[in-house]
Amino acid sequence: MKFILRNGKGEKFLFPVNPEEITISRQKGYDTATILNFGEFDFPQGNRIKEFSFSSFFPKEFDKSFCKGDMKSFLKPQIAMNKLNEFLVLKTPLRFIITETAVNVPVFVSSHQSTFRGGERGDVYFDITLRSWSEMKVAKIAGSGAAGASATNKQQREDMKEKLKTYIVKPGDSLSKIAKLELGDSSKWNQIYKLNQKAIGNNPNAIKPGQKLVLS
């Protein structure tokens, strides 16, 4: 069994150590109305958002006796923790998968807490809560015909793909300057170049004002 988060680009984040338990919270939604002389009444309104909560840790070193995956997928604790922080601010849903189970749902990371314990230097413990996501459905009313009016609900497909982040080159720009301003790290210029090499050409310094570059 593996616990996995997958983003809209298809990139996979594997939790290295399975939690001892996972809490799945389900609640039924109610609207409460007060009727004069009769008191309060609850009216069921369908299921509320489902939450998944669990705790585990990111080990300092890969140990095949309890770690999932392999050295290729293993991330150092600080890097893994930063990855969860990135997920926390995402505006597009992730897909949460627990292999060997029926859990395969779109979610957002709603909370994430990290803990450093004395005596266990290098390991990072965490608590995480995921909230299931479903796209809003829009009902469309079809025009009336000979047989009378009819209503149909057309459901849009869930869009799990992230929108590309782009940048328009300005006079005086360089790839390192753009990487610093837009990605927070000038050393990521090569990442931008690889994404746009076909448009830029063989010389990474040959960007031109007005060019549209893909950043991620």
In short:
16% of the residues lie in helices and 35% in strands.
Describe what this molecule looks like in 3D:
It contains three helices and 13 strands. It is an alpha+beta fold. Mean pLDDT is 79; it is low at 146-155. It has two domains: 3-29 and 42-132, Elongation Factor Tu (Ef-tu), domain 3, CATH 2.40.30; 166-214, Membrane-bound Lytic Murein Transglycosylase D, Chain A (Roll). The strands form four sheets. A seven-stranded antiparallel beta sheet has the order 2-1-7-8-9-6-3. The protein has helices at 77-89, 175-183, 189-200, and strands at residues 3-6, 12-14, 22-25, 28-35, 39-47, 51-58, 94-98, 104-115, 124-132, 138-141, 151-154, 166-168, 212-214. Helix 2 packs across helix 3. Strand 8 and strand 9 (124-132) form a beta hairpin. The chain is elongated.
List keywords for this structure.
elongated; seven-stranded antiparallel β-sheet; 216 residues; two-stranded antiparallel ribbon; 35% strand; Membrane-bound Lytic Murein Transglycosylase D, Chain A; Elongation Factor Tu (Ef-tu), domain 3; 3 helices; alpha+beta
Number of domains: 2
Distinct helical segment count: 3
Give the uncertain stretches in residue-range form.
Answer: 146-155
Structure class: alpha+beta
Which sequence of SSEs, written as H and E, runs from N to C?
A: EEEEEEHEEEEEEHHE
Strand order of the largest sheet: 2-1-7-8-9-6-3
**Integer-rounded radius of gyration:** 24 Å
- Summed over residues and divided by their number, the pLDDT gives a mean of 79
CATH architecture of the largest domain: Beta Barrel
Shape: elongated
**What top-tier CATH class of the largest domain fits best?**
Mainly Beta
